[in-house]
Fold each of these.
Amino acid sequence: MLRHTHLRPVPGLEEIRLHLADEVLPLWGAVQIETDDSDAALPYWAFAWAGGLAIGHYLREHPEAVAGRRVFDLASGSGLCAIAAMHAGASTVTGADIDAFAAAAIERNARANRRRVTVVRRDVLDEEAPDVDVILAGDCWYDARLAERVLPWLHRARARGIDILVGDPGRRHLPTDELVELAAYNVRTTTELEDLEHKQARVYALRPATGR
Ligand SMILES: C[S@@+](CC[C@H](N)C(=O)[O-])C[C@H]1O[C@@H](n2cnc3c(N)ncnc32)[C@H](O)[C@@H]1O
């Protein structure tokens, strides 16, 4: 897979370097061959998604949100948000993703940035939220089924006093009524993934649940 990616600074967050792909289709084809699965997931982990980029910008501007705190990066992909949290001074960071390639990418990218990120490769959404201070959820709202499971999990975490930071460019299933906007950024992504090279992406806190 490394043949399809290059270690390079993340546009707009140059202090972070990731193994990123230029094109999605050749890499996706390689994943399908390697896994012998024509339904293999898109290689999300080889791109810095707009939601994760927004969280990266936010943590650069507001390191106090995570400094000295235990952080869990849900749907970590490349590990972008996890690494941004370590840059901002988090005490520990765990990155979770269901995709085996993502788990490997998080490890590889953390190493490339000389940061320590613990990797969890399983679906945690049926479990209790982890014992952490902050959960990051970068670009999780692109899929109805995932969105349906992420929201109650985040609410349960919030009810336990965990701070939630959501980063998103306005995907179809984003639960805007449940969120409070904290910041907006014009982030640079790629037309391999999006309709435009620059996207407006926002960072939100989760509104406390009422009467749940
Ligand atoms: C659009 S990518 C976002 C990656 C990263 N957060 C970013 O913003 O660049 C979504 C990621 O969610 C992961 N994912 C999907 N379902 C998941 C689940 N149930 N638990 C953890 N990760 C999941 C996918 O494998 C993918 O890596």
Amino acid sequence: MIDVYSWPTPNGHKVHIMLEECGLPYRVHAVNIGAGDQFRPDFLKISPNNKIPAIVDDEGTDGQPFALFESGAILVYLASKAGRFLGNTDREKFTTLQWLMFQMGGVGPMLGQAHHFRIYAPEQIEYAVNRYTNEAKRLYGVIDKQVAQHAYLAGDEYTIADIATWPWLRSWQNQGIDWADYPNAKRWFDEIEARPAVQRGVQVLADARKPLVDDKARENLFGATQYEKR
Ligand SMILES: N[C@@H](CCC(=O)N[C@@H](CS)C(=O)NCC(=O)O)C(=O)O
């Protein structure tokens, strides 16, 4: 059994979708990041960076319980455990990892900042809004070009690179994106959205979600609590 410590955000949904795609048995534990659950000592033991998602597999590769944080590492772990969505040949695996890193190092951080400065920031800072909206548009352009030539990010097969990237593009409106500019990315997005496992994955913890922009959430996520020494 895999225990998942999570919240219904893009990084959380990556793992929910992957578990649904693989049909691996799991239990979800809500970590309400707006309420500050991510700073609880028991959560920090498995996720020292105070971020969801994290997992504990009661049967790791050596048969012992195994804890893991960082969504990209979790996807690679689950893909090896299930023997799916990582590619079969070395060429396919490294291409999948390349696009997974593109998500982890680019798509997630940049779209996250676009969202932050466009929606969460208490004041509109034009330089920051332009900088991250332009980065978002550039990244959508890279995705659009890639999926114009291939069915999926890493080639002909659906992989963890798609599973990692797709949840971030659900908030396209808040990132300043017009789908009309990225028709190939839109085709790819719609196709993945129609997958039954993806539809089940995005329902995980859907009822628990509260707005992340109330005063308490803002303080926990962007204020003094976030920067306390622990
Ligand atoms: N690189 C990390 C990022 C995780 C992350 O940013 N999680 C956010 C929610 S999407 C979070 O837990 N924020 C709470 C906080 O920063 O206190 C991953 O991919 O797992």
Amino acid sequence: MAAEALAAEAVASRLARQEEDIRWLWAEVHRLRDEQLNAPDRCQAEGPCLTREVAQLRAENRELRHRLYRLRLCLAEELSHQARLESAARAEAGREAAGAQASNLLPFVVIGMSCLLFPFVCQPPPSQSPEEDVKKEIDPDNEVKNPPNFMKERLKFFEILKKDHQLLLAISEKKGDTSNVITVRVADGRIVKGEAWKTTPYQVAAEISQELAETTVVAKVNGELWDLDRPLEGDATVELLTFEDEEAQAVYWHSSAHILGEALELHYGGLLCCSPPGGGGFHYNVYLEDRAVSSAELPVLQSMCQAIIKEQQPFERLEVSTEVLLDLFKYDKFKCRILKEKVATPTTTVYRCGPLVELCKGPHIRHTGNIKVIKIFKNSLAYWADNPEMEMLQRVYGVSFPDEQQMAAWEELQEEARARDHRTIGKEQHHQRNFKEVLSPNMYSCKLWEASGHWQHYSENMFTFDIDKDTFALKPMNCPGHCLMFAHRPRSWREMPIRLADFGVLHRNEPSGALSGLTCVRRFQQDDAHIFCTVGQIEEEIKGCLQFLQSVYSTFGFSFQLNLSTRPENFLGKTELWDEAEKIDVEIKDALGRYHQCATIQLDFQLPIRFNLTYVSKDGDDKKNPVIIHQAILGSVERMIAILSENYGGKWPFWLSPRQVMVIPVGPTCEKYALQISSDFFEEGFMADVDLDRGCTLNNKIRNAQLAQYNFIFVVGEKEETNNAVNVRTRDNKIHGEISVISTIDKLKNLKQSRTLNAEEEF
Ligand SMILES: [Zn+2]
Ligand SMILES: [Zn+2]
């Protein structure tokens, strides 16, 4: 037994030396390749010679790999023989049968032959000169200094599994029968002979044409998507799908996701979480615990992906029992979660490319070199299973294509989509008074209300509830949300004043005893606006507010008075700041001489400080606080409607009226014409109705329409029909007589536009 162990040790040490050689050769190949890439001039002069050198080194490398492979098989045999003897001895000694397990693990724990074929994770050999050190730093291939430990272990494990698989295959081949010939029917009708468990779809394609073999992305075998290098298992119908095929596209992008996954693992050492397919391109989720992916890192990831593509790493498929996979992925709680919760079959597949071994159903492209152009362009947050209660993940997006033109077309489309983004277009729409209408959320976390001070002083009036682990509240006002909008990017004095207007729904928990019709409600909307300006702009902006007020209220026919308010009882902030803040409450006087408090114009120095709002001033000071002017002209829209209804006593001015026109036919023969007139006026934008009640006299109909406060009543008979006209009277029974339809529409349009309070007389 001691002799057996010695033999194994000898093989292992030979192996280690070979490994060292290969590492060195690999580094040489890289160095020469880089030299060639970095010095195109020199390359022209010495190119052919260098290329020869590289080719020769590669050939040597291949040869060494081959020898290594044979040594490895030899070693495995030695070790398993030894293990068998050991376990037999143990069994004899009457020990428990746990030894059988050890024999599975034993052989490969011993030797550090991890990553020969996968130089990406190898530590670079000791550098020869200082220049080389410098070069390494800029070489993306050497970006990764310390790949995570689990990668090495995992790769070792994978190689063991792969070898087991190969041995099994070899054994079954030896004792298998000779009738292994299968018939492969290609989609175009061609029939090819092959060998079961040997012939691959790639070989089938290559037999037809090498070009076809190279452009095929994935195969479909008996209707099932199939890796191009996965041997056929019996007679089969084979379809060869190129990138134009949607299913192939999905495989292409899915395979690109593995490349991104490999880069993410190498760069961050995080845990990869499955990447659901969807949309154009691909993305990958990665769990980084307490770190986030920054968009500044995307170019690094992209160049790592490009390096992986250059390596032409093959995708290797293995079918493994769930039990073993739990061991393979024991470092990764997410994989274990999937294996325990999602995998119902006794075995499932893993795929390897480069140092990445990923739990995946496949299929994939043949090797990473099939991806021609790749772009990593976006990152965002995600949650495990899209559930915010679960772990937060980082998501990185990419897209890839078989050629540059398709990438260029994709980029053009993205550009177009950006230009058409409604958010961009929305920003370009302006109101007459230069307010930007914005929409802000209806509820916010209490953290925001704590920052604004509402939580401390106003929370009893807010509707609150729990979401996830946070307390949220429906907004009672828009100011804090608008402060967030101001703060979302740096601001300059050049863009001031910034005027935001919001008709968002507000909720205030008023005492139930105070609720009354529309004047005091718990859910309402305001014409709420916030002007962010500099101290120097205050006067001009307040003037603008007052002019706005004047123009709206005079349109309604209100007179108003202005009151300067002192601070409220529950005031926010320091006294001295309130002394600087002025609040103008505006009271309007209605038709009965009653005063109503509606509009507010309030100067606020406090909120910008609470939210730490700043802008860069003209002289470069980037810590300047803006001033906020809170402005509501109508105040609560609901309350304003109540005030207007009472003010007009139901006699709404024509431009505001919900009942502008009533059409009345003089008899049944004119009903059709009356309907026509009503629909003509409706289409011109007026609120028009028609009275077809035959049980009512003409006079009664006119009377009813007047009581319902229709501004205008059109009576139509045969004469009006012949002349294409209407006979016009008003709700106050002023008779304007027969007027052509065209001219009536014209007059009403003008009256509506002028917002006159006296349309019935001015007609
Ligand atoms: Zn996959
Ligand atoms: Zn406000």
